[in-house]
Amino acid sequence: MKPYDYIIAGGGAAGLSLAWYLSQTAKSNARVLIIDKDKKQNNDRTWGFWHSDATTFEQIVSYQFKNLNFFSRYYNQKIPMGSHRYSVIRGIDFYNFIRSSLAAFPNFEFLTANIEKLDDQQDGAIAVTDQGTFSASWIFTSIFKENEIVAAAGSALYLRQHFKGWIIQTDEEVFNTDSFTMFDFRTPQQGAMRFFYVIPHSAKEALVEYTLFSEHLLPMADYDSAIKIYIDEVLKIKSYRIIDDEFGVIPMTNYHFPATQGRHIVQTGSAGGSSKPSSGYTFMRIQAHTRKVAEALAAGKSPVIPAVSPLRYRFYDAVLLNILKNDPEKAELLFSRMYQNNSVGRLFDFLDEKGGLTNDLSVITSLPPWPFLKSTGQLLVR
Fold this sequence. Notes:
Elements: E1 2-9, H1 13-23, E2 32-36, E3 46-51, E4 63-65, E5 67-71, E6 76-80, E7 85-90, H2 91-102, E8 108-112, E9 115-120, E10 125-129, E11 132-141, H3 146-153, E12 158-170, E13 179-184, E14 193-202, E15 205-214, H4 220-234, E16 240-253, E17 260-262, E18 265-267, H5 283-298, H6 311-326, H7 331-340, H8 344-351, H9 356-364, H10 369-380
Parallel strand pairs: 1-2, 1-11, 2-8, 5-13, 11-18
Antiparallel strand pairs: 3-7, 4-7, 5-6, 9-10, 10-11, 12-15, 12-16, 13-14, 14-15, 17-18
C-alpha cells in the first residue's frame, strides 16, 4: 500500500476545497491523494451564493449580481442587496482552478478510481479502490450515500432539494443582467414547494432552473415539461435554444450527520452536515468547514470538527423543514413575507446563522405565526 499523509475521498466541492486550503497552510508539503471516479472535465453543476466580503475564489466568479427578483402571488419586487452580492461559479471553472493551483504541489496527487471501501485502522485508515489500496493518517470523505443516510435518519425529517436547469440562448435580448431571480413561484405548487431560479449570463442567455423541496424526485420528463411551460407562458420567450442542462439533488434534513466514520475517517461536504437543513445552501458552508479542518491540521490539532449549527438554528431549521414537509402550501406565503418584511442584510445574516438573537427575532416575528406554532407543536409530540 502506498502511504500518504491524507487521502481525500471525493473530488467535488468539499474535497477540492479542502485540498486547496491545505496547500495554503504549513501542510502544503504533505503527501495528499485525491480520489474521485470522475475526472471532473465537464460543467456538471453551478454554485450560487451570497456574500458581503470578497470570496476565496473571486477570480473564477462567472456572474455577479447586486439585485434579486422575487415573484409570487403575494409579493413581487426587484430587491437591491446593499452590501451583499450574489456570485455564481461554474463547476468546470472551479475544478480547473483547483487542479491548476495544485499543479504547483507535486505531492498532491489525483487518482481516477472507484472507491470500494474506506476502513478505519489502529494508526490511520485505508481506501480500497479498483486501482489499488492506499493508506493515510487521515481520510476525509465527502462521498454521500443517500440510501444509507435515509435508513440511518430514522424519524428525522428528510426532504430533497432537487432541480433541473436549462441554459438557453434567445434570438432577442430578454434578460436583465443586473439582477437574478432567486424565487419565482409562478408555477403550480402541486403539494410541494416549487419555484424557478433564473441566472442571466447575458441579455440573450440564462440558466432557467426548476427547483422542488419534496421527498421524491420526478420523472425527467416532468422537469422538462415544467421548464418549457415557464419559459413559454411566464417568461414569454418563444424562440430559444437549449445549449446545456444540469440536474442535482441536495439533502434537506435535521438528521445529525456524524463527523466521522471512525477515529481516522472524517466526513465533509453534505456527508458531514454542511448542507443547511432548511435551504440546502452548501457551498459557503463547505468553505467555512474545510478551512477550519485545514487550519487544525496545520496547527497539529485534531481535524474532527463537526459541521454543527448552534442549537437555536437547528431548532429553526427543524420547524421550517417540518412546514415544508407537512404544510408545503404555506411555503409561498412564508417566503414572500420573509423577503417583503426584512432587509436583505438582516435576512442573509439570519440564514448565515450570524446575526445574533435580536436579528433572529426580527426575522421570526416578521412571519405569519400560526404555521410556526403548529409546526413547533408537531415537533414536540414527535
